[in-house]
Structure formats: structure tokens, C-alpha cells
Amino acid sequence: MGRKTPIFLIFISIILLFCACSSGESEKSTDEFFAMDTVMDLTAYGKNGADGIAAAEKEINRIDALLSVGNTDSEIAQLDAAQTTTVSGETAALINRALAVSKMTDGAYDCTVYPLVSAWGFFSGDYRVPDASEIEELLADVGWEKVSVDGTTVTMPSGTQIDLGGIGKGYASAQAKKALQDAGVTSAIVSLGGNISALGQKPDGSNWTVAIQDPADTSTYFGLLEVADKCVITSGGYQRYFEQDGKTYWHILDPATGYPADSGIISATVVSTDDVLSDGLSTALFVMGLDKAEALWRENTDAFDMILMTSDRNVYITSGISDDFSTDLSFEVVKP
Question: Does one domain contain both 175 and 100?
């Protein structure tokens, strides 16, 4: 077996850059903790910042306990074990969101790919390349259409299992921002393992600056994006991978083949006001490739924008955010 990278992310896929408040500006509160298999960083401004962060951390941990496939007491783990079970209304709604994103992307994002990801060792860290017959057998149980939700009763055929990790951090960031808002916070940044979500603007009224990590050199970035009240979520093969016999295998699998996606996209960033959609789409666009990604955006220009880098280091950015993006690389603006 070749060199392994740790199962937990060492480098976040998006680096947040913002200036510290000057004297007289809002009080700053911060917190860092571990949940959902990654490091969470919360920053809030104002007199209610500390209370807001405490509420947000509590909410993130609650969602982690609800959705984690590694926690046998979670509703998702119990569903995977039972195949048919009654879940909470919250979990049922999130499964429905996952199925909707799967349908929207024609299965490029698929919450039932969990057994394949497990077979490759991306959950346990015991990385391996499954043989073709094992992948073919597991593929027979993959398919979002196999999952049925009737009210709060979820039913799947034997062998099919789900994992909401592909949208779970997006849901957690949305709920964390709600907790911050409920506490009276109007300016905050939620960074969940590199998923960046901005609440409002910086205390001085300017936008936040988010740096998009360079897949070729994860110690630096290839572009900067100005945002307010939006999330910026990136997927890339460099985030979790292993090498065997001189070949690199990353954690983003193509649900159609059971192998790591090979679409020509090496970094897919989604920008939206919808954290859950952004989380699922960042994975889907990485799997879909440039042409299908552009076609999907043109059908949903009001729902999201995107920044894509291809294996030849060409950068593509949709027109909705092109004025807010800067880079030293040449780039093409994708228009409706």
C-alpha cells in the first residue's frame, strides 16, 4: 500500500481571509472545536457573539449526533441497519433534500454511495483499491431512486445505505447561522472543515474575502472572492486521497462507476445563499465535468454560482460572481 493521507483534513479547502477589527469596532468572539470528522471554526462580532457561538456549537454537535454514520445511535446509522424505519421530521426533510439534489444533478451527487466509499476505506482510513467484481456488486445497491420517504418513514432495499455527509456540513452551517442570528448576531463567519458561510458583512460594512485553495499547492490559493450573506463550498480530490502503485485515488467517487471521479475538474466551488444545495453541488460538479456543470448552472442561474478549475489549470467562473472574483490566472466567464 502506498502513502496515505490522514482521514481527517489537514488543510481546509477554502482559506478565510479577513482583517481584524480596529479599535472601537465590534467585540470579536471565536471558538474552535472538533465535530463531523473535521475542525470547526466560528467567529462572531458584537456583544452577543459569545452566546451566539455557544448556541451554534451546541447545534452543530446536535446535528452531528443526528446524522453521523459512525454513531450507532444516530438516526442515519439506525436507518442503514434497519433498511426501513421512522425518523424525525428533521431527518426526513434532509433526506428529501438529498434526493432532490440527486435528481437535480442526475445522480452525480448520490447519498447512497456510502457502501462504495466505505469499501475504498475513506471512512476508516484503511485505504484499498477494491477489485472490479466487488465494485460491480456494490454498484447494484447504489441509486438514490431506491430510497423512498413517506412522511417520516424511510424505506430502502436490502444492501442500500445512505450517508448525508455530502450535505451534512452545509445543513450544519445553515443551522449554526440561524443559532447565531437568534442570539442577536449580525456579523459572523462559520467555517466547518473549510466550508465557509458568511452571516452578514464584516463589522465595518465591507464584504468578507474568501481565498480558494490551489489544488496544485494547498499552502496557497489561486483566487479571491468577495461575499456577504453567502456560503462558499469547495470540493477537490486533494482534500482526501491515497496513493497506491504510483496512482492517486481520491475520495470523491463517481456513483455511476464506483471509481474516483475523472471528469477533468480538479476544484469545484459553489457560491450560494443555500448552504445545503452548495454542499451537494460542489461534489456533483466535480463528478459531472465542465460541460455538464455549465449546462446545470444555465438551468439554475438564480440558485448558485460556481468557480471551476480543470486539470489543465483553466479557470471558469459564472457571470453572477465574476465581478467579485480576482486571480492572477487567466479565466473564462461562463454566461447564461
Answer: no
